[in-house]
Amino acid sequence: MNAQLREILSRSQAAFLGLAIGDALGAPLEFMTTGEIKAKYGLLKDLVGGGWLRIKAGRVTDDTEMSLCIARAIVAAGGWDLKGIAENFAAWLKSRPLDVGDTCRKGIRNYMLKGALETSFNQWDAGNGAVMRILPVVLSTMGDGGECERQVIAQAHLTHNHPLSDSACICLGKMVQLSIQGHSKPRLRKEVDALIEAHPGFRFEPYKGLATGYVVDTMQTVFHHFFRGKDFEDCLVNTVNQGGDADTTGAIMGMLAGAYYGLENIPRRWQKKMDSKVMDEVTVLAERLVRLSPQWEP
What we know:
Elements: H1 3-26, H2 34-41, H3 62-77, H4 82-94, H5 102-114, H6 135-140, H7 145-156, H8 163-180, H9 185-198, H10 215-228, H11 232-240, H12 246-261, H13 268-273, H14 276-291
Helix pairs in contact: 1-12, 1-14, 3-4, 3-14, 4-5, 7-8, 8-9, 8-12, 10-11, 10-12, 11-12
């Protein structure tokens, strides 16, 4: 394996580890305001338990679990398998997960009851539940931007069918792939500028401070802290301390910052506190996914 492929593999693993860590770091802060967080924690920098879910420190939520569903399906099929993803989602929902968003639940039930692999457009479905789980598709399509775009939208439409959700998925997918390939923040910023040109609502300067489950608020928060952040920890800590849908903003920032900054920049203290089974699985799946991609030419 040459040095370039080793770096792609390492950054891919960092992205999946980062997603899980960001999810776990933000979970106890979900639905809290910045004022409530400051009063209770000051600035939360460590994995703790609690929150409305009474979650155990280091445990992941639906952001990571749905990403794992997609990853397992793609790896099992040796490539893209939308029905396999839907089946994995259905099995996950039947397992009574700790948390599941209403739009995700509705879309998965639509598949379970009707076999539908695409939910109908709904103006109220511009949530962040599709963009939070795109990483396995991003990794398995490295080197083929067109296929990445097609697949991230297809997986999104299992539960979320909305132009703002679609555009966020495409933009984030490009940003993560570019990060894994070693590109700079100014290059990544061009993708965000193109998104804002198409959908001005994503403009994040000046930052409004909203971190709700609305995909526009979510992405504004991620963009704001990513382009201001100096390292992985800085990006992630500032993101989750915005509160709101903190597990999902944390998961998205974790995948992006992990891809950009790499494994060596993810704090060991966080890795040690995470669920070891989850950490092991995302590390293995990340490698298997990227080895399926057109980018992989040992």
